[in-house]
Amino acid sequence: MRESHFCERERCVHFNLARIMSRAWAIFREAYHYPSIPFSSIGRKCFAGALRKAWHEARCAAELMAAPVEMLESRAASLRSEIDGLKYRGWGSNIERLERDLRSMLSPIEAEIARRPVTLALAA
Predict the structure, then answer these.
(1) pTM higher than 0.70
(2) How do 3-8 and 11-16 pair as beta strands?
(3) I need a labelling partner for 23 at 20 to 30 A (CA). Which of 2, 10, 57, 60 fits?
């Protein structure tokens, strides 16, 4: 298993290169219907875009894992309130697209909060 790491201010993040490459191929297959269309007609630039997207997903996941729970919960609460406020927007805006975008930002944050163990503050 090959790994790459990114160090920034005493914090080192290790990335699994095989997982990133597998995700890039999955994105590429999904976006360009790769098995039915030959790679030579699609091109390397399209795969490079899929690889960039896979790296972006990996970096975002690493940032979520490094963030404290309080920050994640406050971000999730602000996104939820923004989604609730969409119903008061005017007819000129594309509410469905905005809601879909906000929910796509909210879902990984909620998944990360659910993944972490629950710590209960016991009152003595």
Answers:
(1) no
(2) antiparallel
(3) 10
